[in-house]
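Entry 14. Structure prediction run on the chain below.
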Amino acid sequence: MLDWLLAEMPEDTLVGLDLSGSMPFADASAYFPGWDESPADARGLWALVERHSADDPHLSAMSFFDHLEASRYFRRHGGRRGDRFGEGRQGRFRITENAQRALGCRPYSNLNLVGAAQVGKSSLTGMRVLHRLSGKLPLWPFDAVPETGSLVVEIYTTIAAIAAGRAPGRSKMRSYEALNDALGNLGSPPVPSEGAIDDHTSDALLTAAWLRHVHGDAALWHPPGLDAVRFTEGWTFGAR
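Output returned:
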């Protein structure tokens, strides 16, 4: 995927990556309060993950969340909960995840690495990807929206599903009929098929249609609260 983004992607493409581009910062004025390696901004965070995972294959980041100090901030498998993970089962959240909740979504902390709904592992791997894209492809909101050319944004597929008329608890579509109903609500033509579809495929198709449908909405590029965390926590496109 990284190679495709850098060398093969069509011009003027809006790319949605379903992962967290950063970690909680605003609540403690630090990603990893108490750790002297805690960086000051998101790009520093990507570099930190890269530095401690450089030998991991396929841009994985297992070495980072198993690192003696970093692991203190994560909830991992086998009942391993770091002493700095946070209160309760949920852990810490970014400001944008509070905005997601206001829309009816049910986000998980990206410091949680356990369970089917965890987003931490994919986000840490994604940060190694973002580290390589930095300076080569604009990454909103860490970079300004360019006048022309391609751009990468963080997405949350449930936001797209809600915009397409799906209830938050029914955001996953596992039939072409359900997908095509949602696509129609976004002004997109149906997929010429019927029967079962896996929810990963339907998520991708619907979110691509949603990005095409709403990218011209100026309010989505300037949500309340963004300026305070633009370079630290980042933002999920569509959360407001």
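The longest strand covers residues 14-17.
Filed with the rest of this week's runs.
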